[in-house]
Design brief:
- The protein is α/β, with parallel strands linked by helices.
- The chain folds into three domains: about 160 residues; about 120 residues, no CATH class; about 150 residues, no CATH class.
- About 55% of the residues lie in helices and about 5% in strands.
- The protein is built from 19 helices and five strands.
- A five-stranded mixed beta sheet has the order 1-5-3-4-2.
- Strand 3 and strand 4 form a beta hairpin.
- Helix 15 runs antiparallel to helix 19.
- The radius of gyration is 28 Å and the shape is elongated.
- The protein starts with a strand and ends in a 9-residue tail after the last helix.
Length: about 450
C-alpha cells in the first residue's frame, strides 16, 4: 500500500530500525544539504503558495505482527529528519528514540549531526523555526510504501534502487542475502557490521575483475560487465532446497569454489570475506616469494616498491599490460582456489600464458582478453590457444596445469610491437629459452 504522508505523519508512526539495517552513515554534509533543500522548499512555498508540496523521496516499510513498521529503505533520511524535528519541537517523541543504537558509526553520526543541527537553529530566529515546523506539517511529504510481507518489502527495495540509476550489484546481493537470513537476526546484524567495515570499492573490484570473469571463462563463456542483471549468478541456493547439488553445497560449506554455488544467506558474506583474503594472499605470495622475483619485477614494470599496495597501484603506461596482469591474477586465483597449491612451475606457466597475449598483440583490448581466456583459436596472432580456465576447472591434479606446454618463442623472434620486446625477452628468460646475463 502506497500513501503520501507529511513528514509529521511519517514520524508519528510506530517506526523501528531493524538490526539488519546498515549503520546510519549520513554526515554533517548530508544533513546540511537536507536543511538547504528544506529552506528552498519553504521559500518556494512562499512564492507559489497554493497547495505547494515538496516531496523528498520514498520510504519502504514492513509492518510486523506487532504493528511496528520496520524501515527497509529510507533510514538515513528518517533519522536525519527526526534529529531536525527534535531540535525544532522540544519534547517530541518517536518510537525510534526508544531504540538503543549499538553501532559506533551510527552513534557518532547521530551525535555529530544533532550537535550541528542544534547549532544551526541556535542561529535562526523564531520565525525561521516556525517555518520549519510548518514545513514538516504542510509542505514536506514522502511516499510511504508499507507491506506486511518482508519478502515484498525487499523486492520493492530492489526495484526502487534499480530504477533510474544503476545500484551497485553487490548492494543488491547484500539485500537479497539478508532477506534469506531473516530467521537469524543475530547473524544478520553480524553480517551487516562486517560488510559495512569493508572498503566497498574492493568488493566491487572483487566481482568485476575476478569472480565474475573467472565464473564465465571457466564455462567457456565470454565475460561481460557485472551489473544488476547478473546478480542471479551469486544468489546461491536455499538451505532448505532438496536438490542434490544444493545438499552437496550445504555439506561443503564453508569450503568455497569460484565455479560452484553456495548456500544463500550468511555464506554469501563468508564467501566475499574468503575471496578478499585469498586474493590478498596470492598477491602477497608474488610479492614475498624470492623464487618469483622475476614475475614480481615484470608486474611492477621494474619499479622499486616497498609493499603490496604499491605493487597493485603501479602505472603501466598501457591498458593492455594491465589487462594481461589481471588475466594472470584471475588464472592464479582460479588455480589456487581449486588446488590450494602454489607450485612455482604452475605459477610461471600461468604467468607466461597470460603475458604472451601482450607480446602477441600490437594493441590489446578486453575483447581480445575475453577471446584468449576461453581459448578462441580463430586469431592466428595468438601464440597460445589454451582454454586455461576450462583446463583448471576440469583438472584432477595440480600438475596437469604445471605440465601444460605454453609456446613462448615467436616467428619472427620478436614481439608484435617493439615496445614489448623487453617483455618478450624476459618471458623467454623465465622459461629458460634465453641465458640470463650476469651483468
Amino acid at each position: 500500500m502506497a500513501e503520501i504522508k507529511s513528514i509529521n505523519e511519517l514520524l508519528n508512526m510506530d517506526i523501528d530500525i531493524p538490526d539488519y539495517q546498515r549503520p546510519y552513515k549520513w554526515t554533517i554534509q548530508n544533513v546540511e544539504e537536507l536543511l538547504g533543500d528544506i529552506s528552498t522548499a519553504i521559500n518556494d512555498a512562499d512564492i507559489y503558495r497554493s497547495a505547494f508540496k515538496y516531496r523528498i523521496g520514498t520510504i519502504i516499510l514492513h509492518e510486523n505482527d506487532d504493528g511496528i513498521f520496520n524501515v527497509v529503505d529510507g533510514q538515513q533520511r528518517i533519522i536525519s529528519l527526526l534529529l531536525i524535528k527534535y531540535c525544532i519541537t522540544p519534547g517530541f517523541q518517536c518510537t525510534i528514540f526508544e531504540k538503543e543504537f549499538t553501532n559506533k558509526v551510527t552513534q557518532t553520526n547521530i551525535h555529530n549531526n544533532y550537535m550541528f543541527i542544534r547549532e544551526c537553529f541556535s542561529l535562526k530566529n523564531e520565525a525561521d523555526k516556525k517555518n520549519f515546523i510548518q514545513a514538516f506539517e504542510e509542505i514536506l511529504e514522502v511516499v510511504v510504501i508499507s507491506v506486511d510481507k518482508v519478502s515484498e518489502a525487499f523486492q520493492l527495495f530492489d526495484s526502487q534502487n534499480t530504477r533510474g540509476k544503476a545500484l551497485d550489484p553487490h548492494d543488491l546481493l547484500k539485500a537479497y542475502h539478508l532477506r534469506e537470513m531473516k530467521k537469524y537476526p543475530y547473524e544478520m546484524e553480524h553480517s551487516v557490521t562486517k560488510w559495512e567495515a569493508k572498503d566497498t570499492s574492493q568488493i566491487r573490484e572483487l566481482f568485476d575483475l575476478y569472480l565474475f570473469p573467472v565464473w564465465n571463462w571457466s564455462r567457456g563463456l565470454k565475460s561481460r560487465p557485472f551489473t544488476a542483471k547478473e546478480i542471479d549468478t551469486y544468489k546461491g541456493v536455499s538451505e532448505t532446497s532438496t536438490y542434490s547439488y544444493a545438499r552437496r553445497a550445504s555439506k561443503a560449506m564453508p569450503c568455497f569454489q569460484i565455479t560452484e554455488t553456495f548456500i544463500s544467506g550468511n555464506d554469501f558474506f563468508e564467501m566475499v570475506d574468503h575471496y578478499l583474503y585469498l586474493l590478498r594472499d596470492i598477491k602477497a605470495e608474488i610479492y614475498n616469494n624470492h623464487s618469483l622475483s622475476d614475475i614480481k619485477s615484470i608486474i611492477c614494470s621494474g619499479k622499486k616498491i616497498s609493499n603490496i599496495k604499491e605493487m597493485d597501484t603501479v602505472k603501466y603506461g598501457s591498458a593492455g599490460f594491465g589487462y594481461a596482469k589481471n588475466l594472470f591474477y584471475c588464472a592464479l586465483l582460479c588455480y589456487y582456489d581449486k588446488f590450494h597449491n602454489f607450485d612455482e612451475m604452475a605459477v610461471k606457466k600461468l604467468f607466461t600464458w597470460a603475458f604472451m597475449i601482450r607480446v602477441d598483440m600490437e594493441t590489446l583490448g578486453f575483447d581480445s582478453i575475453n577471446k584468449y581466456a576461453i581459448g578462441d583459436g580463430s586469431n592466428s596472432r595468438y601464440s597460445n590457444a589454451v582454454a586455461m580456465f576450462t583446463k583448471i576447472s576440469f583438472a584432477r591434479l595440480h600438475n596437469e596445469i604445471s605440465s601444460i606446454q605454453i609456446k613462448v618463442k615467436r616467428s619472427p623472434d620478436e614481439a608484435a610491437h617493439e615496445k614489448w620486446n623487453d617483455l618478450y625477452t624476459k618471458l623467454k628468460e623465465i622459461n629458460g629459452l634465453v641465458e640470463v646475463s650476469d651483468e
